[in-house]
Design goal:
A hairpin with a 2-residue loop joins strand 4 (94-95) and strand 5 (98-99). The chain has helices at residues 20-23, 49-61, 74-83, 101-110, 125-134, 147-187, 240-259, 263-277, 371-381, 387-402, and strands at residues 41-45, 67-71, 88-92, 94-95, 98-99, 115-120, 138-141, 198-205, 216-222, 228-235, 285-292, 298-304, 309-312, 318-321, 341-344, 350-354, 362-363, 368-369, 412-419. With 423 residues, it is of the alpha+beta class.
């Protein structure tokens, strides 16, 4: 379809002629309406000036305004596409420097966000179908065009491309969400238990909507000497940074415990990790950790700015243990001390650690928070429940009391440890 003319480009808007010498016979064209408040940008890739004039006439007769540019070769088109991405590309399949699907492939590569409509001759319908199968949104046969068909094809091609892009973005979003879910599930701990002397009942509920992991963290490890070690903590702030730091602290705690670090040294090492890994100097973490040797009638507890813990006897009595503690991690790097408190624990007693998200919901008229005293009251009223049900009831009751004031909006982690008679 070559004519020997030099490459050119043009802009068509409000019916203004692009080839004045050839368009003079058409007369003036009235201002055309704009599509949905925006003028669609269209790039015509066509080496024949006569066919370019035909496209302009179809646009004018269709009563629309288009921002139309013209490139006479694929090389010129690539330059135009690099300058400004159109909404639609009208592509002739017979260009001086590219033919058929080769031209389409290059255009799709350079204009992946634009709709593509190919232009074919009367005897080339199969080429048009092949182009659509290869990624074009539509094809038009030059000898069978009228203005309405032409304008409608461009409009539908742009809409179809937008729909395809939205569907692709939605699918990508779903895949990312699934990948994030798998990642977050993989970052939640699996208690490392060597025997059945202790039962672990853990519940975790992130405060972020649709998240699986928050800034709260917990873990349980049983070492080869039979000692049970447990941890519950809370990183300040919300979002992925807090969640990442929580995972880092949990993994570090497990590693240090397995390596033999205990008590003051253990928290000093965690303090160093937090300071090294936090994103901002004001970030801190609270935690409670405990250890119980096999057969011992006491639990060693350390607390770093964290709430107390509950102890439930096998008879169903519940008490709150508020042991002495030290500062939060990250507040006094290198100088803090955390005392170890020995808490009596009889045979088959259970101990529950939790984060402040469980007790900070506002209750009643919203003037006060549930607090440790409110949680203790709930625990005593439901102390006869089985362990897993007991934990679930505490959480659901706290949520119900906070519901009038917006519910529990912080992360919640609860860890109930229950030793049997062989412990």
């Amino acid at each position: 379809m070559g004519t020997g003319h030099d490459p050119a480009s043009f802009l068509l808007g409000s019916g203004r002629p692009v080839l004045p010498a050839q368009r003079a016979h058409l007369g003036s064209v009235p201002h055309a309406p704009v599509w949905d408040g925006e003028v669609p940008r269209v790039l015509l890739i066509e080496d024949d000036a006569g066919d370019a004039l035909l496209v302009e006439e179809l646009v004018a007769d269709g009563g629309v305004t288009l921002g139309l540019r013209w490139a006479r070769s694929l090389k010129d088109a690539v330059v135009e596409l690099s300058r400004d991405m159109p909404d639609c590309v009208l592509l002739d399949l017979h260009l001086p420097d590219a033919q058929g699907l080769e031209a389409l492939e290059k255009v799709l590569e350079c204009a992946d966000r634009a709709a593509v409509v190919v232009l074919t001759g009367l005897a080339e319908e199969q080429a048009g179908l092949a182009a659509v199968a290869a990624g074009a949104q539509d094809y038009l046969i030059k000898g069978r065009l009228d203005a309405d068909m032409f304008v409608r094809a461009i409009r539908y091609a742009i809409q179809r491309k937008h729909t395809e892009q939205e569907a692709a973005a939605l699918q990508a979003s779903r895949l990312r969400a699934e990948e994030n879910s798998r990642l977050e599930r993989g970052l939640l701990p699996t208690p490392l238990l060597l025997d059945d002397t202790v039962a672990v009942h853990a519940r975790y509920r992130p405060g972020r909507a649709q998240a699986l992991l928050g800034g709260d963290f917990y873990d349980v490890v049983q070492t080869v000497d039979g000692t049970t070690h447990a941890l519950v903590g809370d990183v300040s702030g919300h979002g992925p940074d807090a969640a990442a730091l929580g995972v880092c602290l949990r993994v570090a705690w497990r590693s240090f415990v397995l390596a033999g670090a205990r008590e003051q040294l253990l928290l000093e090492l965690l303090d160093q990790i937090l300071v090294a890994e936090r994103s901002r100097p004001e970030v801190f973490a609270t935690l409670s950790c405990l250890s119980r040797a096999a057969g011992a009638e006491e639990v060693h507890v350390m607390r770093a700015g964290h709430p107390g813990l509950l102890v439930r006897s096998r008879e169903g009595a519940v008490r709150l243990e508020e042991v002495p503690g030290g500062p939060m991690l990250g507040i006094l790097p290198g100088t803090a001390a955390w005392p170890v408190t020995r808490v009596p624990l009889a045979e088959r007693d259970a101990m529950m650690l939790f984060t402040d998200g469980l007790i900070e919901g506002r209750v009643g008229d919203g003037a006060k928070r549930l607090g440790e005293a409110g949680l203790l009251d709930i625990a005593r009223r439901h102390a006869q429940h089985l362990s897993g049900q007991f934990v679930d009831t505490l959480i659901s009751s706290a949520e119900a009391l906070a519901a009038p004031s917006g519910g529990l909006d912080d992360d919640v982690a609860v860890l109930l440890l229950e030793w049997n008679s062989n412990a």
